[in-house]
Each structure stands twice: as C-alpha cells, then as structure tokens.
Amino acid sequence: MTRIIHTGDTHLGYQQYHRPERRADFLDSFRQVVEDAIARDVDAVVHAGDLFHDRRPTLSDVLGALSVLRDLSDADIPFLAIVGNHESKRDAQWLDLFETMGLATRLGASPALVDGVAVYGLDFVPRSQRDGLDYGFESNDAGHAVLVTHGLFEPFAHGDWDARDILTSSPVAFDALLLGDDHEPKTTRVEKPYETWLSYCGSTERASTAERAERGYNIVVFEEAIDIRRRGLDTRDFVFVDVELGHGEGTTRVTERLSEHDLTDSVVVVSIDGEGDPVTPATIEDYAAERGALTTRITDHREQPDEPDVEVTFADPDDAVRDRLEELQLSPAARELDETIRASKVADSNLADTVQQRVAERIEGDRSGFGTPSETDGTVSGSDEPEATADPTTDETASKQTDGDDGQITMEDYL
C-alpha cells in the first residue's frame, strides 16, 4: 500500500484583504498539511501547483516555505510538485531552487517513483500552447502511474481543456490525474477506455468569499484499486451572513443578524438581498469590529438608484483633471505622487521604485504624510482598495503586495 497526500493551491504570500494575518493564515494551512503528512507517515506529498500566490514572492514567503519543506525533508518524506499559473516565470522557477537544496522534486516527463507508484508532472500550459503539445512521458514498470497537473479541465464544469485529450495523447496509461487550479475539491472517474480518476484537492485556504466549504487536501491510497479521501484543515473562521431585507428594514436588521454569531477573529462576509432601506457599510463594519472581527466584506445585491446624469466633455481633459484634483484638496505629498504616477516621464518599469523612494523621502523629511492624521492615534486615513484574487475561478483579481520592509526577491538573489 502506498499513501500520498495530494495538495495544491496553497498561495503562500497572499495578503488577502490587505491583512498580514491572512498572509500568515496561508502559510499556517500549508504547515498543517505537512504536519499531517509527518504524523500519518505518508510516502510522499504531491503539490499540484500555485505553491506561491505570486511569481515574485517576498523573502518572508520564501523563508516560510523553506521552513515547512525542511520539516518534511527531516521526516524523509519527498515533496513532489509542479508549477502553477500564479507562480510561473519565464526563467528558473522557485521550485528549481528548492530542488537544488534537496527539498523538492520538480515533476516532469521522467517518473518519480514512490513505492511502486510512478508520478509524472505537467506544469500549467497556457491555452495558446496546448495544440500540438508533446506528451513525451517516459515508460515505467510501476504498478500505478499518476499525472500531476494544473488547469481547469473538462469533464468538470468551467473546464477549458478536456483531460481526455491528455489521456488519449499520452504514451503512458495514467490511473489518476491529480489536479490543481480549481479551489473547490471534486473527484470523478473517466470511464472506458481510460478508467482514470480525476481529482481536484481544492485550496488549503479561502482565496475568495465564494469558497464557503471547508478547506483541506486529499489522501490517495494505492493498492490494487485507488482510494481518494478528503481531509479537512483547521483554518480561520469565515462567518457568512446572508440577509434578506424586508420593507423598512436596513442597517439595524443587518447588525441584528450579525449579533447571532461569534465574530471573534473571523472574516465576516455579509450578503444583502431583498427590498428595505439603504444600508451603511461603515456602521456594519464598525459593529463587527467591536465584536472582534478581523475584517468585514459587504456585498449589497439590490438594485441601486440611478445615478444623476453627469455632463461629460472631452474638450480639455487636462483642465478636468486639474479641477478634480482641486476638489480633492490633496496634500502636497499626494500631489507629488499624482505627478509622479500620472504625468511624469518615469518609465513604467521604474515607476514602483520611484514612488517607493519618494514616499520614503517624504516620510523621512515630513511626517505630515498624505492625508490628515487622526488627532487621537496618529493614523492616516485612506480609501479601501479592491481585494485580490488567487485564481481564475474566484471573484477577485490578482495583485502583488509588499509587506513592510519585506521586499520582493528574484531567483538571481540566490543563484
């Protein structure tokens, strides 16, 4: 009997909702998977892509991954992985670095043998490169063969690549395809002539408010037959509150519904439908924060009143921009950044470094900052930015973050 943990979509480094606590949550979930692997003494951990959320993870993200992988290596459990779409780079991959350190094996056309199971890998393949793809998988003498790959595959819903095309073109007959990219766990069997299991392990943390189900991973057991079972992970609570407002109901009704839940350290997700009065998001957020919520996300699905007609003219856009800037009453620091980003001739490739440098200079030389500091706590007010997403199947958009002084690094810093 051979037991393999099938995990993926760990998205290390994702600072969801711009909260450092969420960044730590993603690493903690990955650590739980490895701790379970060690406690259960499995034969290998297979990762189906998107170990990192970004192709340029910060130093703390890389060190966090290294710490977890060292624990797995010390237990003499191999880590076999492929590259997903979020972390894929044009040059050397982070997985290559881990392989040179003896902490991982990058799967490919040559099988990695795990106690009678031949494990192959296929990194994420963009749609434009799939036609005519060479499936040059080498033969094996193992009792079972599996392929680890990353993408949205048919016959599952929302698939854009038929897994049966791979099975037909491959010179190796695979007993199972262990998949990553879809954050929801699902398993099916492709019948004759393939007789192949297809399984998504799902993500190890919620990368979107659409991901309501428990997070976890799969344990795949190989004997004469293949058995795939689900294991849950202990992740941060998401409290989902769906409110149907009736006539005359509004913010008070929403807070009453929130009072029915323990919000301590949780991500609160409020969804509003029905009729009722307009709600005040700030009041709801403050109410949840007073009861210990980490953060609150509010979506009002009701039709909003039409905006008044706005006269638009393109006669002189520069004048329009200047007028709008006057209305905003920006501080001198903010005007300087606007000039840098919008109107300067700094190359796009240098823009982020230039902005960071000017912000640092401004903070160092003038503590008045970019807005009006609070009289009580000295914090600076600012607008809420749109949240980011980890995956094409989610309802957010991918973003890059930097965490304090923890700068992004490249492979060249190591090689």
Describe the structure.
The chain has 415 residues and is α/β, with parallel strands linked by helices. The chain folds into three domains: 2-232, Metallo-dependent phosphatases (Purple Acid Phosphatase, chain A, domain 2, 4-Layer Sandwich), CATH 3.60.21; 238-293; 318-382, no CATH class. The protein is 27% helix and 21% strand. It contains nine helices and 17 strands. The strands form four sheets. Strands 4-3-2-1-13-14 form a six-stranded mixed beta sheet. Strand 1, helix 1 and strand 2 form a beta-alpha-beta unit. Helix 1 (20-40) packs parallel to helix 2 and helix 5 (251-258) runs parallel beside helix 6 (281-290). The protein starts with a strand and ends in a 50-residue tail after the last helix. The model is unreliable at 367-406 and 411-415 (pLDDT under 50).
Number of strands: 17
Main beta sheet: strand number and arrangement? 6 strands, mixed
Question: Nearest-angstrom radius of gyration?
Answer: 25 Å
CATH architecture of the largest domain: 4-Layer Sandwich
Helix/strand/pairing category: alpha/beta
Report the top-level CATH class of the largest domain: Alpha Beta
Overall morphology: globular
Write the layout of secondary structure elements.
Blueprint: E1 2-7, H1 20-40, E2 44-47, H2 59-74, E3 79-81, H3 94-100, E4 105-106, E5 112-114, E6 117-122, E7 144-150, E8 153-154, E9 161-162, H4 163-169, E10 176-180, E11 186-190, E12 196-200, E13 216-222, E14 226-232, E15 238-245, H5 251-258, E16 267-274, H6 281-290, E17 295-300, H7 317-328, H8 332-343, H9 348-365
Parallel strand pairs: 1-2, 2-3, 3-4, 6-7, 7-10, 8-9, 10-12, 15-16, 16-17
Antiparallel strand pairs: 1-13, 5-6, 11-12, 13-14
Helix pairs in contact: 1-2, 5-6, 8-9
